[in-house]
Amino acid sequence: MRDRPLISIVSPVYGCRDCLRMLAIEVCNAFADKQLDWELVLVDDRGPDKPWDLIEELAESDPRIRGMRLTRNHGQHLAIWAGLAEARGDWVAVVDCDLQDDPAVVYELYLKAVAENVDAVVVDRGNWKDSWFRRFASRSFYKFTKILAGVNLDSNVGNFGLYSRRMVDILQSYQEKEVFLPVMVTLTGLSRASYVLDRSGRHAGESSYGLSRLIRLAIAIIIRFSDRPLKLSVLVGLVISSISALFSMILLIVWVTGAFTVPGWTSLILSVWFLAGMILAVLGIHGFYMGRIFAEVKNRPRILIEQSTCHEKSDKSHAI
After folding, report:
1. Hey, what's the torsion of the CAs at 188, 214, 318, 309, to 10 degrees?
2. Which one of 56, 275, 283, 312 has the lowest number of neighbouring Cβ atoms within 10 Å?
3. Alpha-carbon distances, residue 97 vs 163, 203, 218 (angstroms)
4. Which CATH number applies to 6-225+301-319: 3.30.390.10, 3.90.190.10, 3.90.550.10, 3.50.50.60?
5. Per-residue tens of pLDDT for the chain, all 320 residues
């Protein structure tokens, strides 16, 4: 049994090697005079700047810092999942390595969680210091997922937050191959609170979430967490069928009255092309879902870890 609560800080690392020393310093300063123990779990998601040697150096200099190196780039959310699996804390905070998420706030999140008796405190990012395009892309992403996935997420809420051991254990019990932390926190149904904090600028590096990557992530979330596109495809089919039936009745009446003088083929060709396009689009939607089912039934490990500075797992590959 620990005398003091342990706070684990999980940070996925990609393209932010230059931030890591400062991140370690900021975390250490954040808990320097607090009655809490802490650990920092750095997950190397195979960034282009090759941060693993620096992570090992930081882990050797402070036993409270631990590192994990994935075998390949798995993406931010699976890297977070690897960190959650390794975290030992009574509470687990998820913090971006670029220092846009201030580690000093984690203690305030802890006080709020204890005072309000909630299982999570997520950070409302307030006013951003990112570019207008980055803010626009992020808000569009959340609106798109809300419309097509039926997932009601606040565009100002990201991964930054503090999560109880109970919530982390429940999250780890989910076996989906694709994960998205904000959605899955909502799916637990456990109590949450929010903490408003204006987001600061990056200490170094640039966001890896461009428009194309956000679109791919949105599609993955829609297919993974909702069957609404399948229902919409049925609705679209019924609407087209109804319009076609109505149009057929009109054409029949016109033909009976002898109003047709010169028969044409343009409307027929356009109708065929339109319906063929709709059929292919609906088949494509079904194909997305079949692809996800195929990926799930293969039951391959979600995350492959090549190295770890954590206790007995060091230098041994393993899967999560």
Report:
1. -90
2. 312
3. 18, 9, 23
4. 3.90.550.10
5. 567 899 999 999 998 888 899 999 999 999 988 889 999 999 999 988 889 999 999 999 999 999 999 999 888 889 999 999 999 999 999 998 888 888 999 999 999 999 999 999 999 876 655 666 666 666 776 776 676 666 666 666 778 999 999 999 999 998 888 888 888 898 888 999 999 886 655 544 455 555 666 677 677 777 777 777 777 777 777 777 777 777 777 766 776 776 655 565 556 766 777 777 778 777 877 777 887 777 777 777 888 888 888 654 445 566 66
Angle between helices 211-225 and 228-256 in degrees, nearest 10? 90
- Edge-to-edge strand list for the sheet holding 304-308: 192-196, 120-124, 157-164, 91-94, 6-13, 37-44, 65-70, 304-308, 318-319
Q: Where are the domains of the chain?
A: 6-225+301-319, 228-298
Smallest CA-to-CA distance from 244 within 255, 256, 252 is with 252
> Which residues are paired to 199 by β-bridges?
none
> How many whole angstroms separate alpha carbon 27 and alpha carbon 283?
50
